[in-house]
Amino acid sequence: MRGACPDKAKTKEAAKKMGELRIGLVGTGAIGRTHIDRINHKLQGAKVVACADPAAAFGMKIAEQMGLAGYEDPMAMIADPEIDAVINTTADQYHEQYVLAAIKAGKYIFCEKPLAPKADACRRIVDAEIAGGKKLVQVGFMRRYDAGYCQLKEAIASRRYGEPLLLHCAHRNPAVDTSYDTPMAVENSMIHEIDVLRWLLGEDYATAEVRFAKDTRRTHANLRDPQIMILTTKSGVRIDVEAFVNNGNNYEIKCEVVCEDAVLNLPEPSNILVTANASKGIAIHKDWSTRFVDAYNTEFQSWINATKEDRVDGPTAWDGYVGQVTAAAASKARDTQTIVDIEYDEMPDFYK
Ligand code: ISE
Q1: Would you say the pTM of this structure is higher than 0.85?
Q2: Which of 16, 107, 174, 235 has its Cα between 20 and 30 A from that of 275?
């Protein structure tokens, strides 16, 4: 049911007059609200004019607080002709239904990672998009927009340092809460490495393996922490990724690419060096929202621009599918403590 009051309807009208993309966002939790704020106050060419949440009352409350049109039913918002494009920041289990609804409505949709929690659900999205005959889906793998990863990609692609041979990576969070369990290290955290390293190297994976280390004293009964994921690519590049999500210190993402003729390291966005109280210090990142703030801004500005130009130019539904097939293989490898071969369906011409 629609819940827009007249002045909020005017917001949509005003956005239309200015030639701005009118976005409806489903999933009004913290990340969704951050994206509303970034689009409405920092970026150009679009406004989030409406929102909804699977928990209808919560979505309506956020709409009221943020001055947006609220919809009790997210499906009604997605289908509304006043909405040009959709952002999906719901919990993972809701992703598929809203992405399929946007495809059915012929609207561009940005879906936060993962595209869906299971590979078969991602494949259904891929099939629906192909059946609709038009690419509409972008997945929120924001690391592809990080300036440091872009520099690494350019350096690797140029081959001026020879072939990449080995990658040593780390994904460290200061702390996670007790709802974060062992599978989430792959499915929620290292899914970023699964996507961005495949993009960096420009090739798919062949095998996955996950091993545990000695557990930190900070962990709990449902979480083995740290873990190491080992991937090999089809051409034989070997990658190790440490996930240590209760490191007690900082949010730190490392990526070292060992090439034949050089070692390349991912740079971090720098902070000022402060001299005070008889010491010198540089503030560290405590979480991903500050570490990747520029990447998020670039990602959404690029999505807005491409959507207005009637195209998708970021990570596709196919990338979302490949990510989940890889994550499923890594999860199986962890549960069986074996090395698992990764089998993807053949890439449809539609995505080539
Ligand atoms: C979180 O869900 C994210 O997506 C962050 O980017 C990641 O670094 C963190 O480990 C995840 O829990």
Answers
A1: yes
A2: 174
